[in-house]
Batch of 4 targets.
Target 1
Amino acid sequence: MSKQSTQQPTAASPISPYTGAWDLEKAAHLLRRTVLGPSLKEIKTAQQAGLSATLDLLLKSAPIPDPPVKYRNDYDEYVQLGQTWINASYKGSNQYRGMSLKGWYYNNMMRVDQTNIQERMCFFWLNYFAISGPLTDHRAMYKELRLYQELAVGNFRTMLQRIAVEPRMLFCLDGHTNHKKNPNENFAREVMELFTVGKGELAGEGDYTTFTEQDVAALARAFTGWRNKDFLYSDYDIPVESYFDSAAHDTGDKQLSHRFGNKVIRNGGANEYKQVIDILLSSKAAALNFCKRLYRYFVYYDIDDDVLAHVIYPLADTLIANNFEVKPVLRQLLSSQHFYGQSIRGAVIKNPHDFICSMVRPFGEFWHETKTLNLQRRYELGNQYANYCTELQLEFLEPPSISGWKAYYDAPQYYRHWLSPALMQSRDRIALDNILDEDYHIKGDRIDLDYYSYVRSLSDPHNVDKVVEETVLVFLPRPITSAQTSKLRNMLLRGAAVSDWNWLVTKYIQNPGVDTYSRPVDDRLRDFFKVMFGFAEFQLQ
């Protein structure tokens, strides 16, 4: 099959509960969209547990990962090896913190000890608020990521209240300079246009169908007074926090337009911004905008009139009815007949996170390399993942604009922004020449995927056809042709009889780590996966 773009789904089914067969293919589809690289064991467990129980597991509040640490001894004499730096001043030499944060973040995505939506939602929020800019303190970056992990499937209202005064957001959209004598409209505009009601059609001069320029000016005044403490790269123990300066706050009444029922915002001091958020969320447009972005992230980019009526509006109603709790909306969407439509499967081009994780996490990643992956190598491996994603146009915590990555909003390309001839070459090189190469290494230490454990996870590794079938289930979102199946099968057999594969696998399982028996099987599996990861279907989820 040639490398191709996704097919366009047909008209939406109403967002009624899914009632079809709960088979391995449906379980795999759900996990591909919610877990970063599901394993065969996770897929089988989900199928056996059923849809409802699997959603309980996915949407369960997950533990917050331990914070990033100092992972090597030659930096930062004021922090001990293995200790976290998230509350430590910038006294001393500490250039490693950016690498530590990246390594920590990408290693979290590879965690194989929990089947949960937490890290998938973390990136959703990263893209939703799309904070970036030159004023970056790694402690503040961690604080932002921690918020997204903590409220991964939490309350949207709470998330807005916290992000509005988050130090990185105040830096990014100039909220920290917003003063009653000179109101700054950056955050006021984006909190409506991007984060809540959305930018509607132009209805008149300075008047959109969701807000007006009068509202931008009023909200700018309402958000005055918030400041960041002087923590930026400080040698002193100044906490990474924002605070409210009442002397800089505009205490006058703020008149909103007809788009918000001509409401007046009265002086609320340090809590006035919460009053603003409540007003914004009282508009149905805010719930609709949020649900559209959630849909484009988890399902597909095309929202036609049918999807709008039968999917987005019901989801928005659910969000409002549940006081902006996100979990019920996700549950409704992920348990719907629409989500499991045939045209939805394999309709999304993987972003770089998904691309990297879907190659490695199903093998249990590199956790079996316990002697090689000490603390330092573990973090350096996470940094390697980050470098790959940067090469594939997804730079860590650096969305190209406050709108986020183009794949989730820029028509008509949408997900196709992740692919180009040059990016496709990079994907092939990362997959085939790096990660699958037997000499793949981290800072000189060779590591290899855990083919042995993968083979042991298969229901019948002696049956070459079953090996192909189950591996396609794990790594490819769509059925493949008979020619593709034969090609994969031939990579395992190498022209030999099926009985030879049976004998090789028997000896392989009986003699773990013995090169005489492991080499023939590992080499075949490596070639097998190079073919599979070269299929166009592998770029999809």
Target 2
Amino acid sequence: MKVPLLLLTTKWLTLTAFALLLSFNVQAMHPNLVITQTDVIAMRNAVTEPGSFTTAYYALKARVDQQMPFPVIVPVPKDGGGGYTHERHKKNYQLMYNAGIVYQLSQDKAYAHYVRDMLLAYAKLYPTLDLHPARKVRSQNPGKLFWQSLNEAVWLVHTIQAYDLVYDALSGQDIEKIESELLRPVALFLSEGQPSTFNKVHNHGTWATAGVGMAGYVMDEPEWVEKALYDLDKSGNGGFLRQLDELFSPQGYYNEGPYYQRYALMPFVTFARAIDNNEPQRKIFQHRNGVLLKAIDTTIQLSYGGLFFPINDAIKSKGIDTIELVHGVALAYSLTEDPGYLDIAERQGQIILSGEGLKVAKALDKGLAEPYQFNSLAFGDGSDGKQGALVVMRSELGGHQALLFKPAAQGLGHGHFDKLTWQYYDQGNEIVSDYGAARFLNVEAKYGGRYLPENESYAKQTVAHNTLVVDETSHFDGDVEVGNQNAPTLNYFETNQFGAVASGEIHTAYPGVKLERTLALINLVELEKTIVLDVFDVGASGAHQLDLPLHYLGQLIDTNFELSVNTKQLSVLGSENGYQHLWLKGCGQPEPGLAKVSWLNDNGRFYTLTSLVKGDEEYLFTQIGANDPNFNLRNEQAFIRRVKNKKQHQFVSILEPHGEYNPRKEYTLDAQSKLTELAYTGQDDLALVKISIAGMHYLVAVNQSAEGAIKRDFQYQGKPFSIAGRLAVYALNDL
């Protein structure tokens, strides 16, 4: 039967009008970013009943209530990081965001009016501002409210969410003023006003695109969203999606390291949730095989004892309880319902007030958490995952140990010149250490809270790390651009019942010099302990001075060779490349055989590095602090193994944890190293290390074949052995 054309036309117009009306309503509905109307309904219901979400809500409400009686303060910008005006503006965006959440859950318009008043105060101030007066201290793009535009973007990410949360309580006049005189100018300043930052594949660009894109969703500016996703010219050469593609490896490792990974996680997580809530057809959480979810998990894995591994420019006190990862874990649990994430949420001890936070809170209240599994893993570096890797080895034998090995890429401007370095952790403490960043974050008296000059002159230099220095110069001669173009190679990584082993190499850190290092975290089951094997091979076309530092945390206890110690006057070890910051406190030259250095860590355990030496190595004992007139550097210690005029050299060492020191109960156990024999031989592609320790004799075999971990039969001292993987340990007592 044919339907009359007029009826069809009328029906089509009705459906079209309904669709347009529905579309308009969807656009007009607020909140519509991270927290949606559906979330709000569930959250309002939740706070009527006891539980951890309700507890978190009333705690937040109390904090906001404490601030609301005070006048709104929106000061004229003056200070750099850590100064009063800087911190006030940070506090303001957090207050607006929190008050917006309390408004949505309480429906008390007093909270919305508080946000409105602050937004109007900013709308009055912002048009009067020039670039920040403290901008001259840095070359980075300046902001107006803040000394760098990065902070301005962070302000927008929080403020646009606050605005979204109180939008339905605002008058049309207020909306017009706030948008035209504040939010729109800020968004345009951070995008069209600073294209080099907005289009940059860098965490600064991530924050900028997230803030502008979210503003686009709230203020019905789809063009802003497109530019945020694809670059200002929408070419795809920059923008949020390009950042997801370039800044993370396929395994979810962020090129600048875990400290900046957790910082960049917030805009990635926040904007991605806003994208999914507004345009689920983009399937943002499926992008690059779910790389964002992998990034959240990788951030957790790159921690020990609740703190992130402090490679590159890292503040060593940052850990998994950072608010960025709290949001990340809530998102990860919401997407996967993996009970391991609830374990991390419990350790974080924070419930965020969002739909995802509500899911976490309910699951924790039901006792659904299961232990999160920290694993031995190699995280490929670079967008293709082939620019080296960051390797984490772990063991639970005799306590919790972790070894971090870094045959990873440079890490952009925040990277350090530390190819093939390592760090070691045991029983909750850092044992073989990395300096991290030279910075007192937001401590104005310390260079305005910014990176100190010593970050460049010491912390980034190779001698500040546990890797090889040639002729007292840093890798790539300290050139970041060259470093970014040359990454190490991860030769192999394997974990099995014997432990974990990895090998990496680089040929371009120094002209004509090949560096190759193999590290293994080895389980000695009979002794219920682990040891670290370190084999560092250096080959060069010409003769060089080779320095191999080891930075340790603790008190030097003993050496098995004599030291000549400077007790009355100290001298500086060198003149540049970080050496100018090292006091030479003493030196010694061990006889051929085994050289031992022992120290006591704050965890009450002793550690001994036993090394094979031929009588040609000098040990230099150093302390940081020379040429430091403002006392900016920590006075940490190291010893440097030095050989001179060498084309080739092999450093072979075993790190051995042992004993216990308990001053409260006044006892000391096993303060002396139990390792009595260490021998190294090479047999084709096999590295064979014989160890005698605590009365046990072991043979450690490492298969370094380029073809992979194929089964190999071999002889050692006339006895047959077989190895099926990269690493094997044989107890010789029974043979």
Target 3
Amino acid sequence: MPKNIEHSKLYQSEGVRLLYDNSLPGILITFIASTLLAFTFIDNNNLHAKITWWLIMTTMLAIRVLDTRMWIKSDAECRKKKRWIIRFSAGCLITAALWSVYAVTFYGQFSIEEFSSTNVILAAMAGGATSILSASFTLTSLYNIIILMPMSILLMMQPEQYKINLGSLGSCFTLIMIVSSARSANYIKETILLRYQNKKLVSSMEETIRERTQEIYVISNIDSLTGLYNRSAFLSAVAGIEREFQQNHISGFSIFFIDLDGFKNINDTLGHSIGDKVLVALSTRLKSFLEYGHFMCRWGGDEFIMLVKESSHEEARELAEKIIASLSLPIKLDDQTVALNATIGISACPEHDTSITRLIQLADIAMYSQKGKYPERLAFYNLDLERNLRRKMTLNEALKGALERNEFRLMYQPIVDTTGQIVSFEALMRWRYREQEISPVEFIPLMEQSGRINQVGKWVLEEACRTLAQIHQQHGNICMCVNISLIQFYDKGFVNNVKQVIERYAIPGHLLHLEVTESLFQSEQTMINEKVSQLQQHGVKFSVDDFGTGYSSLSVIQNMNIDYIKIDRSFIQHIEQKGLSIVRAVMNMSHSLNFSVIAEGVETEKQRQLLEQCGIPYMQGYYFSRPLEHPGALAYLNTAMVQESSH
């Protein structure tokens, strides 16, 4: 755009702004002056004419006030239109014309006082216009000519010399006002241009400084190992994407939170130098996805974050699966090959939130919820995930003092033989927190993750053996089954603790059955076998709980000399379909591997009959009894023994 045209548009837009900014005080002064002049010198001869003139003047001023309000409420782009200067100029010139109409129309009826007042007001209006309307030289000149020249010409046509002199003075005053207006207009133009140039210079300097600062900032915030953005640089870079969304330039974006599964093991076993090489190799693979115009950073450790612009759920899922497939490929490093998996949590804007930091948090929650799950390695955030995480955090915090607050208790569920005689009880831990029963499925994993399972496990063993000692005094052959976590096996004092409890309560070792899950078989077998063997030497029996739901190794079961296998309730519930085949297979194995079988989760007579037909020697479930509190369990046992003796 040529500079003259650019400056012309600048003067116009800024000039209109100055005119409207100054308009309301001028309108108010005009209204006051017209009202005083019209009503001060009113009489019966000119009553209707002056009131009519005043009403017209007031209407015109009201229209100008409304026009000013419309300008104030209009947006910046609308104010640049030429119609505003036309509307403003028309209002001013019509007002000036009304002043001249008053002077010319009522001149013949003027008293000396009204004549003097009229001339003073017209001169004052002209002088004020020179200042208030200085943003437009043309408008100021026309205003002065219209308001002063008709009265001046009229006076110069009168026979009295002093009126001729006043008319001449008015003409000279008009010329002076026009010259003054020209100077004021030039000054205003220079001021507008200088202000524009200064603003442009400052803006240019700020932009240059911002660009240089951004360059330095990005260079100093690149992750030295992977070459990706680090956390702070990433957040700075993607802030622009957040602004684009807020300004409706893009419809949304997604955040991928990528976590490498098993990276810690590589650092621990192969060393940090190998770990660094793995990160570099995987970062190179991640960079291949930047060609789609995404932002990516190393968030910390083995965590990466990627921002994906404008993608549907299907597109985001497809991209995440490609990333997982790429990261899961083997990595060749010198003379060895390593392989990792990756888990990705995804959050979407605006579906889940619009803040980058919040979306990162939500994607992290989604990733955490999916970590370690197979075969799906990615998850989209949903509100339930966050609720579950918050609940876990709340429960985990509450578990810290639960034992000291006596919130835990044990319940006992009978295990019976084929005749219905009670042979043992299983001690089941319960937690009541804030008048709510928390499921063991929730709190047991939390205790295992935090390591509190060792302390609580000792308490469970102690309480169960105290109850067993009471039962043993009256019913010598009843056993007690206690669930043991894998974490407890890693406790160096576990074996000694079990021995001390047996000795303290004078319990025959064979009456204590320790139940473990199949996850035990995935652990360090040498250490596990050694501890199991030590306890078995003291008569302690071992059961495998929930058999068939996890990792199973018959050779390990044989080597560990397991005493009991408990068939998981899921097979019993479907025993009339495929579950019956599983039950029969386990019974066949029990004969060759020399272990006994317990069916848990028995709830109906039909299930009991089918299990009995299969030769299952022991059963447990709601069909026989629900878990009972300590007094209830003792009462149930006594009643069962009385009934048995009566038969």
Target 4
Amino acid sequence: MADHPTFTLAVVGAGPRGVGVLERLSANAPELLGDRRFVVHLIDPFPVGPGRVWRYEQSPLLRMNSMPEDVTMYTDDSVRMAGPVAPGPSLIEWAREVRSGSLSFPVPDDLRAEFDALAGTDFPTRRLQSLYLRWFYEKVLAELPPGIEVVEHASSAIAIDDGPPQRVRLDDGSELTADAVLLTVGHLDATPDQGENALAAFAERRDLAYYPAGYTADVDYSGVPAGEPVLVRGFGLAFVDLMLLLTEGRGGRFEDLPGGGLRYHPSGAEPVLHVGSRRGVPYHAKTGYRLRGKPLQLPRFFDSYAIEALCARPGPIDFRADVWPLIAKELAWAYYTELFTGHPDLVVMDFAVFADRFADLGWGTSEMESLVVSAVPAEEDRLDLERLDRPFGGERFESAEELGKAVREYVEADLARRANQRFSADLGAFMALLSVVGQLPALLMTGRLSAASQVADMDGWFHGFFSFYASGPPPRRLEELLALADAGLVSFLGADLLVTADESTGEFAVSSSSFPDVVRARTLIEARLPEASVPRVFDTLLRQMRDAGTLTEETVPDALGDDQPSGRIATRITDSRLLDAAGTAHPRRFAMGVHTSIRSPGAFTRPRTNAIMFRQNDALARELLQLSPEDQPTAGAGPITS
């Protein structure tokens, strides 16, 4: 190894994604590294492995919205990649092995009870997931092949100067050089947008409290007053976290009732939360059952062949008009496969007959509707995607009381449905949604989606629908919501929320399309993560690179010339290379994450789903292992202009 120059990689962000790339570097090294030396610098002020979001030092009230049997950091033989499969335990398998003594890992005393009782269908705390991620990192370290070395830096990168080599400056005053840099970025923190700035300025003038969008676990809500009304915009996972921190987190207590349900005992330190959103209801609860029908064959109608046929048409592709019908048919296929084969008593047609006719019909046609109605007698057993997306569908209520009753009935019905095996077809649709997300990168690589449709419909509407249907909270969180509503500590504002600064009263005012009243308060909280925005990015390093022109906002090209900014970090989709302001792909800089051009999903995934994350990590690791420490990229690196 002494005869070969050392290659140095700086990874900025050492949470699950950064460590996932490290694992793929390790797995591919025996084939590609040879007898060279490869040094990886992991740069993160948060603990390596868990990173910021999954760090152990956070409230024990905050939980995952995934079950431990559905969480893994390990590849399996479902993953279509060039590198080798390196199997390992899912979260629940790991916990069982630690409990049995076949694996050794120290479990903190304050997590011991949860850890010992953990079942595959529970929803663990984020602190427990932190242990799994830390163990995974330590195992990767222990199994590194000869030639790979890891150096940790518990600091933040604040600037990168071009080379060769690249010079990465850290906030502790040190500097390191690297042959390549990888940014593993999660959600981008952003400064307030124009509307938020206006609300913040109003709050300052009127001595009000305004909390802009941010990661809930990192926001200080200690100033939210007890006993006073608080307006909350956002009804997703960020709201669920906020709800717990401002109630149970302030000393209240939930009591399990003998007949089911919960009762909340206030501490007196809670505010009164008035919550609304675009839909006016919380995300769907996670299902509490497994599929019981025949194995789903996915993708079926939204696969590579369908995408090729779609792109063979002339003109730009519109997501809602051209892509969504294929996606909807895919969801319906999985839904009805599970319904027919798992619950034959709920249908009046042979599945083979239904499947043949279903395959020949377009989604949304009267013929498709007639087929479903003739085969599925009960309306509650039919898939209504439009109703799922807009549950109140423009419904208007005469009073807050009527609206509250409607929201409560909606949540109760959702909880009942997600707990009843009869409705396991919903899980079929969920699995199809995961499959669809895995196919979207192939569509993006064609460059055929119109820019406006990609930004507004795919990134906007479809991502929102996916989160609403598939990324909801554990059922108990919605039970807690109902208990807080019963206790008078949560009320509902409805759909299509409109927030204004009421100069006449000196308060924030909220109205909605759901009922005629206007609700006012002196505190307003945005319960959501900031939207991706390179122009407003808060991170010091990303700002420095943006201002230097070495990192830029993605502009989605349009065949008709109507290019659209997306807010995301511009990367080359084929290889994750970072694009600069001139559109040139840097030969030695890469970026991966949800807010880059490749629109990567989360950093860990469900087992046996051919997860995009694993495929992307593997491809990038192989690319990095084939770079040389010289000034120019190797022959296999491809052109350096996009």
